[in-house]
Each structure stands twice: as C-alpha cells, then as structure tokens.
Amino acid sequence: MKKQAIILIALAALVITASTVSAHEKVKLSGYVVDVMCFAEHAKDATDVAKKAAAEHTRECALMEACVKSGYGIYADGNWYPFDAKGNELAKAMFEKAKSKDNIKVTVEGMNHDGKILVEKMVYLPQTTVTKAKKGPLARASKRRAA
C-alpha cells in the first residue's frame, strides 16, 4: 500500500513538473520594441505593414506617460509578444538610454507563457550605418553593380 501511494505521489509530481515546463517555453527573440497602446491596432495587420509600423515607432512616443503605462512588447518573426512587468521596466530603461529616434531593436531572452514574455534579459541592438566605400575593391564592385 505504501509503495502505491509513493508511486502515485511521484507520478503527480512528474505531471505537475511536465505541465509547468511546457507552459513556460524558453525563447530568444530579436525584433522591434513597441508600447502596447501604439501597437495594438497594428498587431493584426499584414506582416509587412506591422513590421513597418514597429520600425517607425519613435523613442519619444514610447516614453510618453500613457505609452509607458500601457506596457511594452516585441514584434519579432511576424508575431507580437507583450512583456511582463520586468520586461516593461527593462524596455523603459532601454528607451531612455537609446540614441536612435526610431527603428529600436532588441534581443530578448526569457520564457514564453501563454504568449506573454517573462523577460530575463534584454539587449539593445544599436543601429549600424553602412558607409560607402570611396576606394578599393568594394568601391569598384559598387560601381560595376550600378552600371
């Protein structure tokens, strides 16, 4: 009888653990950070329209009081994922430090719980600029392609 009780308890613990693990999928996403208030109307748009809206969303807007209160999320891989409270704090701090006016991208690591990201880490991806080569093989290749 004791063996059966121990086996039942062990099975129950295994089921609970398995359901918790599957409910919290580890994720790493790279995309645009946008506040909920501004992006809510674009979240269901076609991918190219939503991506353009997310990329054009400004730092200034994201720091407006109503936008901060609405919370933040990430638009990545054609999907919208809202953040948890920690993610909202990290996003606000990132917006405050960001030098870019718009096109604000990050990589977020955390757990996906029912479509909401429980953020563990957020890394700002500063914009990179491409400069035109004036001399050398890159410049010659650019001229050939343009011709």
What is the secondary structure topology, with strand pairs?
Blueprint: H1 2-23, E1 25-35, H2 36-39, H3 47-56, H4 59-62, H5 65-70, E2 72-76, E3 79-82, H6 85-97, E4 105-113, E5 116-125, H7 137-146
Antiparallel strand pairs: 1-2, 1-4, 2-3, 4-5
Kindly describe this structure.
- With 147 residues, this protein is of the alpha+beta class.
- It has one domain.
- The chain is built from 7 helices and 5 strands; from the N terminus they run αβααααββαββα.
- It has a 5-stranded antiparallel sheet.
- Strand 4 (105-113) and strand 5 (116-125) form a beta hairpin.
- The longest helix is centred in the first third of the chain and has 22 residues, at 2-23.
- It is elongated, with a radius of gyration of 22 Å.
- The termini are far apart.
- The relative contact order is 0.16.
- Residues 17-21 and 136-146 have low confidence and may be disordered.
Category by helix and strand content: alpha+beta
Helix segment tally: 7
- Shape annotation: elongated
**What does the radius of gyration come to?**
22 Å
What is the typical, i.e. mean, pLDDT?
Answer: 82
Helix content: 40-55%
First-residue to last-residue Cα separation: 86 Å
Largest sheet: 5 strands, antiparallel
- SSE arrangement, N to C: HEHHHHEEHEEH
**Runs with pLDDT <50, length 5+?**
17-21, 136-146
Strand percentage, roughly?
25-35%
Strand order, largest beta sheet: 3-2-1-4-5
Count of the domains: 1
Tell me the total number of β-strands. Answer: 5
